[in-house]
Design goal:
4 copies of one chain form a homotetramer.
Chain A: E1 2-5, H1 11-23, E2 27-32, E3 37-42, H2 50-54, E4 59-63, E5 83-85, E6 88-90, E7 96-100, H3 107-119, E8 124-126, H4 144-157, E9 161-164, E10 179-182, H5 190-196, E11 203-206, H6 213-225, E12 231-235, H7 253-260, E13 265-267, H8 269-273, H9 279-288, E14 293-297, H10 302-306, H11 315-333
Parallel strand pairs in A: 7-8, 7-14, 8-9, 9-10, 10-11, 11-12, 12-13, 13-14
Antiparallel strand pairs in A: 1-3, 1-4, 2-3, 5-6
Helix pairs in contact in A: 3-4, 3-11, 5-6, 9-11
């Protein structure tokens, strides 16, 4: 950690701070510049309260040198992690297509979609049984019955299933799920993350709407510190001033996360844009950016069928997109 | 709800959409403009999936006319809500000062601070026993022992206590707490909110880092829809590009929330800025903006004592600030 | 335009507003909902002050139905615009690679880079002669001499040149430039835009750091309303809370701009990320998102040569990237 | 400047970098930590290209120690600057109220408003003659005639005038203006700033929509470096995801700018919120935050008169607000 002192800091105050730092077990290396003094703090600075130090009258700024994450840090794990998602490898050169409806609605619906995406080459089936909804009055999913329908679809197609857990008290119901998804709004639900660190299933961890990449990695660290190293990171759009799409897909997250961490990184273009007609472009951009997989919503909704020219992602559109994604993937990894 | 169709939409497609809307139980009012057709949807549009309608090929844009929140909507509750926080009224002309340390650390610490803020006229004592921490390696609070120390401080000073609940499984431990705080990161932890709707304690609900005011109100709605109408809203800073303060305190939230809702609104300048030397200015700005209360961190930390000129909010600084806040409150409500 | 009145608005006030609107030349269509009255305003609502109407006591909200831009609106220009950039077609199926150094430094430098990017298949040469710098103490470009060096490089390689104009008083110096660039900070320098509307050169208009896509189009409209229809739009990253890259490249801008406008859209991954090691991923993502071109910084700087493994975009890296971009372009347009 | 090298950087590459830095005239202080090497760069680091150094393969991060602004830096100018705005002192304990209409429309209008705000104790008159408009089709001000009307209003009331300059070619027309305003969109129009550095009038510099406080200060530095030290900084709201107000007023800018600079800081609550009914709360919050003045829009518009209960800021509302602002100012400075 580096602590820059304000110009004109008296020797006595400087000395007191150094003593306090040493008392916390740090070694302090003093470097006097032309204008300001810089203290290099050597030792396990993760135990120091950076905000506290920064708030001191004599301190100008503070910056960490070492990243506070270890388990998910590529510095300590140079090899790509390959996560086994119900038998499907993700990461380390293995690309996975996850597809399915936003919500599981009926047996017929989930079976139809599951078979269609399987035919188009999808590797995993997604579908929401527990749905986070901004309004308490909106439909919040079929819950246990939704999980049952997903299992039926898996039995029928062989596709492993990915579905979201919102409340840790429901964990038992998820014993037969292949990949547990943590949604954007729960990215910093630390108690939930900690519990998932003790389970033996891969976790698909979505980036929160207003979270930095380092915070996403710290949340992965919560899971991994508990012993569960099977974490897949997912970029799904951040909240910005931009008002045309629901969120702003931050694709630079893909190469940056690959730089900082050895975990696989996938992209969800459906939630990011909120407009299905933009999904193909953003899916192709995601794979071109180097993602290890894509998570795409596919549905066969009556209203879309009704308006036959609608730009929504119906199974046939998904199939066409899949083919292009595969070709771009080949170019990227060539 | 208003649905604007794209120019040149064919009569047949328009008719199909209208039929579908009517099938969902809506009445549709058609208005043909010079360029575009506008459909006015009359009925309980909260049951329609706005995103789905917006994604249709023939739809240009969709906007809701009525707010989706009812319980916390001033339109239906014109009188200010007065929340009773352990006997202390908040809102509707009642101003409350909440003060205390970030974390409860020791009996001596909490008693010292509690007595000091009581002497400076604080109405409620805050202190964290369960702490949300970005890193799994950071100190996450004294937990049950912290709650016990808060009770001791209450017994000693008479100040009701406000403290954060992170995991619904801990609810029982909070049976003796006066006000339960929901932190910014849990503002959209919908299962937690729903459970708190069934408890009989006031809830202090903090705005999430990237949440709009309407989303904050929808989260209050979750609690209130369950029967618990005692909700206090709290602005504590949002995440923006601004890089000097930890977050950007959005004080316009105060008059806007008062316009939209009858719930009391308080301001937390400590978390918003992350720099204690800015707290007095932002606290005064908060009360001037019309807040019904302030939540301020006060501590008597050794390192601050060490550097005697530090700008941190020590008890004596808090006392001085309290006096100014009271005077500004008088001007605002005169 | 649609004006939603607050519930309980008295008949008299409603009548006064309608009269005022009719007095402004509008026709008003009244639609009474279960809760609220909605006024459909028919006529040229672009002449009304939306903010003023919105601020009225009886008004709940206001929304425009028609877009305020005409010249750059795809609704009125369904065919893609093809801009001729010094003879190189951009848009409408024509993909252009623009490459070169950030700043023109010396004749040797610009010639070396120009030849290298030409060899790698670049279509246009970029290079800054007038540089916008945050600090008044930083090097702000070679100015007229820089333009001269660009002309020399063009003569040598045949590549048309793209360079930024910051001050309208310098326009004469640009008479021999092929494409004039308007930088992000000048996107809403309306006097500059208006003047460029009267010149006969293509304008490469960069999106401002905090501007919506509709604002970008309104700025294009400024140029086009003056008679100059040769505008190329450029996404170069927006400012968000994300702190790892310099800006956040918003690639959804590409399909959205193509939807709203017939103008060509290019992507600048170099300025967006600020980190040359991320440029290849973001360049590939840009072309995959459907961009009509890419603008990439290429340099042969001694310090990069010095550290031989540096991830910076040297000519040979650019050549390799170009090849991948071409292949992805083929997949996208197949 | 501090340069942190990546762990495992070879001795040879480290040596090359140090040589290069020394070749640029820096002294380099090497500090080897447990994990990483930190280079302390001593000398005039403002001449180094921070982005270039950061992009090197062996560099983990770079941070500046000294601020790049000098003329407006409180470190070198501990005493508050008092700007003389047409004879009215602003800053250093002098509080100024600037009021007037958004645009100058007619002689009657500007005279009516000017007299009303003068009667309510305003110190300066604002009014737009050249108006920045997002759309080329909107009214862009009366221009020279508007300036003339402002002069008439000054002659009548004695209030010095503040008005916006957008195009440096119009500077001559402003020779008789008391304070020249630079709008948010021109905050980084560096050529404009540089020219204003050579004029002898106070400049009211508004913060750009997406600019940090350090960037605002760098723009002030442009003006001051040219010799014109009379700069007033103005916070007027930034662009965030928040969607209820036009922009988000960032009041923490006030104490932070006072900390970093000796220049006076004023607040414009009218443009920040875009909703006149929120202006009184935000104006009171602004003075409570420590602002040296407020800039408020006052108008006497027929439509507002029409809807007699409208919440807009009419002269009588301004007068009432002024009184409260004065009282809060007394509390803050007591």
């Amino acid at each position: 950690m580096i602590v820059v002192l304000k110009p004109g800091t008296g020797a006595e105050k400087k000395e007191k701070l150094i003593q306090w730092l040493e008392h916390q077990g740090m070694r302090v290396h003093i470097s006097d510049g032309d204008y300001q003094t810089v203290l290099g703090i050597i030792g396990d600075a993760s135990r120091l309260d950076l905000d506290l130090v920064e708030s001191l009258e004599i301190v100008d700024k503070v910056s960490r040198v070492t990243e506070p994450f270890k388990c998910c840090n590529r510095k300590f794990h140079p090899e790509d992690m390959v996560v086994s998602a119900g038998g499907v490898p993700v990461g380390g050169g293995h690309f996975a297509m996850i597809a399915g409806p936003c919500s599981v609605e009926t047996e017929e619906q989930i079976l139809t979609v599951a078979k269609a995406v399987k035919a188009a080459g999808a590797d995993l089936l997604r579908g929401g049984a527990f749905k986070p909804r901004t309004s308490p009055y909106d439909f919040s999913g079929l819950k246990a019955r939704g999980l049952e329908l997903l299992r039926i679809a898996r039995a029928e197609t062989g596709l492993p299933i990915v579905t979201e857990l919102m409340d840790i008290r429901d964990l038992e119901l998820f014993s037969d799920v292949d990949v547990i998804q943590v949604g954007a709004r729960n990215m910093q639900n630390f108690d939930l993350l900690r519990e998932l660190g003790h389970c033996d299933k891969p976790i698909l961890l979505k980036r929160g709407l207003a979270n930095t990449l380092r915070e996403l990695l710290m949340s992965a660290e919560y899971i991994m510190a508990g012993g569960n190293e099977q974490v897949i990171l997912c970029e799904r759009g951040i909240r910005t001033f931009a008002d045309y799409t629901r969120n702003t897909l931050d694709l630079s997250a893909v190469p940056v996360l690959h730089e900082l961490s050895h975990l696989p990184v996938i992209v969800d273009p459906s939630h990011a844009t909120g407009l299905s007609r933009l999904v193909p472009s953003m899916a192709m951009a995601g794979v071109a950016a180097g993602a290890d997989g894509l998570m795409i919503e596919v549905h066969n909704d009556p209203i879309h069928a009704l308006c036959d020219g609608a730009q929504s992602l119906r199974p046939e559109e998904y199939a066409k997109l899949s083919e292009k994604v595969r070709q771009i993937r080949k170019v990227v990894t060539a």
